Amino acid sequence: MPTPTTFPDDFLWGGALAANQYEGAYDADGKGLSVQDVMPQGIVGPRTEAPTPDNLKLVGIDFYHRYKEDIALLAEMGFKVFRFSIAWSRIFPKGDETEPNEAGLAFYDRVLDELEKYGIEPLVTISHYETPLHLTKTYNGWADRRMIGFFERYARTLFERYGKRVKYWLTFNEINSVLHEPFMSGGINTPKEELSERDLYQAIHHELVASASATRIAHEVNPDLKVGCMILAIPFYPLTPDPRDVWAAKQAERDNYTFGDVHVRGTYPGYFLRKLRDKGIELDITEADRRTLAEHTVDFVSFSYYMSSCETATQEREASGGNLMGGVVNPTLEVSQWGWAIDPRGLRTILNDYWDRWGKPLFIVENGLGARDELVTGPDGTPTVADDYRIDYMNDHLVQVREAIADGVQVIGYTSWGCIDCVSASTAQMSKRYGFIYVDRNDDGTGTLERYRKQSFGWYRDVIASNGASLKA
User: What is the third-level CATH fold of 12-239+252-308+340-465?
Assistant: First the structure.
């Protein structure tokens, strides 16, 4: 009997956002500063010593005050799940306090109340590129082992407060991105060009132990909780059939595999240990660390997918534009306005690859197209965006998800990135828009913050209502 090419009846359709990109209210109700508050140009510009007015993330799209309106729009699309992050510095303003900030906890209670009102499942990211700035300046972020204890206290606070209301949790957003953006991803204050590889890998180890420890705490608080890791997924293809290019592509993928291997298998893979030996790096790994990693592996694997890339050891390198994780240009693919290769089949590749490798349920928690949208007047006289390009992009990717499910891959759900327009993490712009909902805010900070449904809003509503049957192959 052939496997049906359909989505499971309990497939979780929805969208995703991050606190630092959409909440705003950066200093409201006792919130402390995070690394994002001193990154007014995202990863492309210098940091500042204190928040500056040109940092669009300080206001974001003001979800902090508009969450009821925004969640109602998500419900109108029929969302089954909403992925959001909790701002660590809202709960522990400095990060190393012993008691949490009740006003911060109460805000997320209100958000959960609203999600429950509409029957939307929450998917919560514990740390999404928003390390408290105090931890960065005082301890050099995850380079310091004491961060594990601070994170454990923070995670336990969340699980004990929300553990009966939130089933699905993610520990660190795109944890492997610390390889390339140690300040944003790991709160490491040492300038990237001065950071030693040994200190970087030690920081990674601390994060991995903290992630496993959070998984332990979650299962202690409520055995029914499901905790996943979150990986920035980029399949790397050899630029040519030359075996040296094939090996270069494998090595690039292994940089990302390492994080999933540890989260799922509970131990460092041999290829990573060899890499450390070849570099003469010896990490501080205790026996307690080894037990924690081995005994508290994740329940599922989640990932972001935006693009694929190529690698070569034999050809002249033309770097992939906009690609955080390196690689070279794939001459067979078109690219987005920000230079990201558009590769729907790469998503099927990743799904099959991760399923074959780890055998854990998979959750696609970020995918989408960043584009410069133009607000126009719709047929009914209301403002909208004619974003057929976004519809085509998402349709083609979701068709490949459907194919992967038919391949036998277990996929929990799909949350499109930036379901409401928000400030870009990489560029700190509003003009790099991903949403089904247009937010009237510009790169210079002007705008009314009014929300308008794009044409993709109705398209995604139909996809969810039909459980994917409306997709065009």
Answer: TIM Barrel (3.20.20)
Pair type for strands 375-377 and 383-385: antiparallel
Q: Which of 211, 258, 361, 256 is nearest to 300 (CA)?
A: 361
Tell me the residue type at 271: Y
- Phi/psi of residue 251, each to 5°? -65, -40
Residue that the structure tokens 């001459």 belong to: 331
Catalytic option among 114, 181, 253, 366: 366
Q: Are 324 and 179 in contact (CB under 8 A)?
A: no
Instruction: Return the structure tokens found at 24.
Output: 């705003």
Closest by CA to 450, choosing from 384, 396, 398, 377, is 384
For residue range 285-295, list pLDDT tens digits in order: 999 999 999 99
Tokens read off for 384? 């909208």
Please, are residues 341 and 309 in contact by the beta-carbon 8 Å criterion? yes
What gap in Å lies between CA 413 and CA 268, rounded to an integer? Answer: 28
As a whole number, the mean pLDDT across the chain is 96
Domain ranges across the chain: 12-239+252-308+340-465
Catalytic residue list contains 366: yes
The Cα angle at residue 369 between residues 306 and 304, in degrees rounded to 5: 30
């075996």: which residue's tokens?
243
DSSP E strands, 115-224: 121-127, 168-172
Tell me the angle at which helices 102-117 and 146-162 cross, rounded to the nearest 10 degrees.
Answer: 40
Q: Which helix (H) or strand (E) holds 16?
A: strand 12-16
**Radius of gyration of the chain, Cα coordinates, nearest whole angstrom:** 21
Q: How far apart are CA 282 and CA 437, in angstroms?
A: 49
The identity of residue 65, as a single letter, is H
Q: Quick: pLDDT tens for 391-407.
A: 999 999 999 999 999 99
**Coil, strand or helix: which one is 283?**
coil
